[in-house]
Amino acid sequence: MSNTSETILTAPHETDNLDPRTDAQAGLPDGPVTIAPVRLGHITVPTPVVLSPMAGVTNWPFRVICEEYGPDGLYVAEMITARALVARNPKALRLCHFAPSEKIRSLQLYGVNPSIVEQAAKIVVDEGMADHVDLNFGCPVPKVTRRGGGSALPWKTDIFTDLIHRVVAVCDPAGIPVTAKIRVGIDHAHETFLEAGRIAQEEGCAAVTLHARTTAEYYGGHSDWSRIGELKEHLDIPVFGNGDIWGAEDALAMVRETGCDGVAIGRGCQGRPWLFANIKNAFAGNPERLNPNLGEVCRVIRRHAELLTEFYDGDETMAVHDLRKHIAWYLKGFPVGGSTRKAFMECESLADVDREIGRLDPGIEYPPRVVDKPRGRVRFAKKVHLPYGWLESRTTTHEERETLFGDDPMDASY
């Protein structure tokens, strides 16, 4: 189906992948799993565990909390829209901030126009904003893909190649490694990951992260880890695996199954930044796992609120509003009642948060039923939205580029 402005895929969902934690994987060898440090240009990542960038989640307050729990890995800032950075949008600039404690300043850029992303990368380099730049070719959200961005972009090999080439040309002389985040493809009839990985490698990317789902699969079903193994065999540069790592044992299983060089954690750490402590222990061969009681969780909530207040320059209202989604994740599974959850959602200040924390029983143990279980709703894409005629060719015409790269004010705002 299509209309005059976009192409819409409505093919049925194709996921039939088994949960990698089921008996379907019983034939895999068991035992210790180790991962070696990964070199990204001049940067060494001692333990290649990545906090994946998540919009509205991985600002520096959350990154700091995750890094305090976890290993010396990569903790990536949430996606920065290139056009917004070039336009000096205040929110985009705020998202480019890093805390002094962050060991590797890792920033992700998103864009469709290679020239604009190149300009954004030049700002990052010239103003010393980051030590590492990741490029987003994995986002499946319709408002991104309908403009040819995110996981739709690798289909157009000319734009994909040009964009990576330009960013690497800007970053490489400054010693800033560039990596790429991709998906398997638009759907299983339009897979791009092997070709995209090869292009990224040829154009100078230091590593590639694969979220082992298609755009059509969105966040539904189970990611197909076998595709991570395929990409690893296909490339010489490091490959990071992403998708359905809900607990430390999942991280071990992904490395064991795929041979990937590192793991990237997204939704699994929402409301449980201590997942990074468990993964750190797992790769060190330490059986200890942290499942904090409600008192410890409340301590993390309070610290998160304080850091968000600093992030918003002392504005407690903005900080507490930002915290609300995190509180829902932090309290998931705890028997605190709907009225308590509602009260937290109505907080307007740190004092309000303190009041609600004071009403909770700190001795309540972490609920076993949510240990290492999926976070958030399992969502399937009902439709894949793409620019009109997007799938008709692997390259773009001059007219298509003019349409894609037109001045879109939405691209410069948040």
TrEMBL record:
This is tRNA dihydrouridine synthase DusB. Keywords: Flavoprotein, FMN, NADP, Oxidoreductase, tRNA processing. NCBIfam families: nifR3_yhdG. Residues 51-353 form the DUS-like FMN-binding domain. The gene is dusB. The keyword NADP applies. Its cofactor is FMN. PROSITE patterns: UPF0034 (PS01136). Residues 13-22 have a biased composition (Basic and acidic residues). Pfam families: Dus. Residues 1-30 are annotated as: Disordered. GO terms for molecular function: flavin adenine dinucleotide binding; RNA binding; tRNA dihydrouridine synthase activity.
